[in-house]
Structures are given as C-alpha cells and as structure tokens.
Design brief:
The protein has 128 residues and is an alpha+beta fold. Helix content is 52%, strand content 23%.
Length: 128
C-alpha cells in the first residue's frame, strides 16, 4: 500500500519553478524541431515533384539541340581524307563523325571529323 500512496504523492505534487522553466524550454525546443523537420520534408517533396514534372522536358530540349546542330551543318561538306584511305564505315555523333577505314599502309584507322568545318580532329590507329 505504501507504493500506491507514493505514486499518488508524486503525481499531485507541482514542479518547482526551476524545473517548470526547464519543462517549458524543452516543449518549445520540441515545437521548433518538429517545425524544422516539417519544412524539410515539404521541401524534399516539392523537389521530387519538380524533378518528376520536368524530367520529360529535358529530353525534348536535348532532342531539339541535336536536331538544330544537324540542321546547321554545311549542305556540301568536303572532307579531305589521306591519300589511299579506303573508307569502310561512318558513324555520326552530334557535330562529329567517325570515319573507319584502312590506310594505304594496311593499318586500320578511325578519323574523327568535325562536320561543321570538315577538319580531321584526330586519328585513332586500331591494332590487333
């Protein structure tokens, strides 16, 4: 019975003024912390929604940029290849092209060509 009486005494007893100040500060800190967390969660959700809504438009912009680059090429572009170079293939990547072939010495090469100027930017030698 004494334990039950002790519990009732602790519940009914008011806090001293120093402990009441600490309790008020802790409740205020809890409120501020919850507010900051709520604002952070809202910001993350807004960011996710923004990314989802704008992800399709970036692809369209990229397609338009590549299309406009192709349209801006010279209609008649002359690329001067090395003498005796036998072309075996050609690949296009944006404003550059890769010409694959065999030189007069029998060595396979890939020539990287700027399609706006016709200049050979680099030569890659393929060896076995």
């Amino acid at each position: 019975m004494q334990n039950h009486d002790l519990d009732n005494n602790n519940d009914d007893k008011p806090l001293d003024p120093a402990m009441e100040k600490v309790r008020v500060k802790m409740v205020r800190l809890l409120g501020v912390s919850l507010g900051v967390m709520f604002i952070g969660i809202i910001a993350v959700l807004i960011g996710v929604v923004y990314k989802i809504r704008n992800s399709g438009s970036e692809e369209v912009v990229m397609e338009k940029a590549q299309t406009s680059a192709i349209i801006n090429f010279a209609e008649n572009l002359d690329v001067v290849l090395p003498i005796g170079f036998n072309v075996q293939g050609f690949n296009l990547d944006g404003s550059r092209g890769a010409v694959r072939g065999v030189g007069s010495d029998g060595v396979q090469r890939v020539l990287i060509v700027d399609l706006t100027s016709g200049e050979i930017l680099s030569t890659i030698v393929l060896r076995k």
